[in-house]
From TrEMBL:
Keyword annotations: CBS domain
Residue ranges of every copy of the CBS domain listed in the record: 7-63, 82-143
Protein name: CBS and ACT domain-containing protein
Superkingdom, natural source: Bacteria
């Protein structure tokens, strides 16, 4: 899957000259937490988050009146508070690349740009979570088998798939994850009317079935 297929397309943007109070109202109206900041050609020049606005907004303990607060924010421009060193992702990047960028930078969203630097979308942690749910087929009522202590040897996935096929089942998704001891854990999902029979078949083939549950 690619970022272009999972991002929010044609996002609402603001310019560096946009007033802070106008941006705040936009975010409130559309329930956004982030807004890309673009120049007159639509190229990315900054990123504005609700945290940036909160950082410059007077605290509840201030002695300023509501009118004074509104007046203060009305004079302030986006370029005064926006993030200028923006982390972005290209629209043809994979969803895994976007997730890794967000993980490494500890951020919840990324502006998505085209090959010429024009903003074409925004991808957030919510989009990543939804992709995970879709890829794993979590809403389809599949049975999840966790195979533990799998050695790193050629043919393991083939043998596992063969055992499941012998039970008349088709694999919907399969994920491997290396553990601290160097062995692997395999999580596989598929439809089955008799999970006990599948478990017995897998154990006959030498697999350690650590957990079985139907999700969705």
């Amino acid at each position: 899957m690619f970022v272009a297929n999972r991002m929010a397309k044609n996002p609402i943007t603001v310019t560096p000259e946009t007033k802070v109070d106008a941006a705040r109202e936009l975010m409130k109206k559309h329930h956004f937490r982030r807004l890309p900041v673009v120049d007159e050609d639509g190229r990315l020049v900054g990123f504005l988050s609700d945290r940036d606005i909160m950082r410059v907004s007077p605290s509840p303990a201030t002695t300023l009146s509501r009118y004074e607060i509104t007046s203060l924010l009305a004079k302030m421009r986006i370029e005064d508070i926006m993030q200028k060193n923006v982390v972005s992702v290209n629209e043809d990047a994979t969803i895994e690349e976007a997730a890794l960028i967000m993980y490494n930078h500890k951020i919840g969203g990324l502006p998505v740009i085209s090959s010429v630097g024009v903003v074409v979308g925004v991808i957030t942690e919510t989009d990543i979570f939804k992709t995970f749910v879709d890829v794993m087929g979590l809403t389809h009522g599949k049975t999840r088998f966790t195979i533990a202590d799998v050695g790193d040897k050629v043919g393991v996935v083939r043998d596992l798939a063969g055992a499941i096929s012998d039970c008349g089942c088709n694999i919907d998704s399969l994920v491997t994850c290396q553990q601290e001891d160097g062995n692997y854990e395999i999580v596989v999902r598929f439809d089955t009317a008799d999970s006990d029979a599948v478990r017995r078949k897998l154990e006959e083939k030498g697999f350690h079935v650590a957990h079985v549950v139907k999700i969705g």
